[in-house]
Amino acid sequence: MPAAALTDRFPELGADELIASLVPPPRFGEARFSTYLPNPDEPSQAAAVEACSAFASRIGAAKAKKSRLRSLFGGGAAIPDGPMGLYLDGGFGVGKTHLLASTWHETPGPKAYGTFVELTHLVGALGFANAVSRLSEHRLLAIDEFELDDPGDTTLVSRLLQELTDAGVYVAATSNTLPDKLGEGRFAAEDFLREIQALSRRFGVVRVDGPDYRHRGLPDAPPPVSDDELEASAAAHEGSTVDDFGALTAHLGKLHPSRYGKLLDGVRRVHLKHVTPVPDQMVGLRLVALADRLYDRAIPVVVSGIPLPELFGEEMLNGGYRKKYLRAISRLTALARDAVTVPPAAR
Question: Which Gene3D superfamilies match (predicted)?
Answer without folding.
Answer: P-loop containing nucleotide triphosphate hydrolases
